[in-house]
Design goal:
This protein has 192 residues and is an alpha+beta fold. The chain folds into two domains: 76 residues, no CATH class; 91 residues, Alpha-Beta Plaits. It contains five helices and eight strands. A four-stranded antiparallel β-sheet has the order 1-2-3-4, with helices on one face. A four-stranded antiparallel β-sheet has the order 6-7-5-8. Helix 3 packs antiparallel against helix 5.
Length: 192
């Protein structure tokens, strides 16, 4: 199967013991309906639990855009944006040396497959600030904190990531990690 977003081949992976396919280019993840239902069932709220827990939270709040997978639908495959309660979020504000933005974006494109190949990686996005063209926001979804701090950072892929990207930063960014959403959904549109 090929990614419907960027037309690259999808690679098999698993989460919670359920198979899915991941795109190494855009980070899109696609589940068969039954596999997603198994993952969601494992995290369903107990009877009487407050709204926002388990399954209800995975699909966002009322009147918000929903993922392609919703109660009562049975698509062949769905974007994994519904799994935001199962992951942590790495956040870094990247200030790039002014005038080096195009070079940085090309280098980031070359570096993206490095991080996408790591265990526990669930997807990433790079966004450019609308007010400051040399500022970027990097969001990376990881299954666990250790997948980033121990797995990626102790890998040869991270050494190459550093070689490709770290010389663009001024000042060097602070990287922080955030827990799953307390309320709502970060990934209602299926992408970070």
């Amino acid at each position: 199967m090929r990614c419907p977003t960027c037309d690259l081949p999808l690679k098999p992976a698993t989460v919670e013991g359920q198979p899915f396919e991941r795109c190494g280019g855009c980070g899109g993840e696609y589940f068969a309906h039954h596999a997603l239902q198994e993952v969601l069932s494992a995290h369903a709220p107990a009877p009487g639990a407050a709204r926002g827990a388990g399954y209800g939270m995975l699909h966002g709040a009322p009147n918000e855009p929903r993922s392609r997978q919703g109660p009562g639908t049975e698509p062949e495959s769905v974007v994994s944006g519904t799994l935001d309660s199962l992951m942590i979020l790495e956040v870094a504000v990247l200030d790039v040396v002014p005038g080096k933005e195009s070079e940085f974006e090309l280098a980031f494109e070359r570096a993206s497959p490095l991080i996408a190949s790591m265990g526990g990686y669930l997807g990433h996005s790079l966004r450019c600030c609308m007010e400051r063209s040399s500022r970027y926001l990097l969001l990376v979804r990881w299954k666990t904190l250790e997948d980033h701090t121990r797995g990626f950072r102790s890998s040869s892929e991270y050494q190459e990531w550093k070689r490709l990207l770290h010389h663009f930063y001024d000042p060097f960014p602070t990287v922080e990690h955030f827990s799953p959403p307390l309320l709502g959904s970060d990934w209602a549109d299926g992408a970070p």
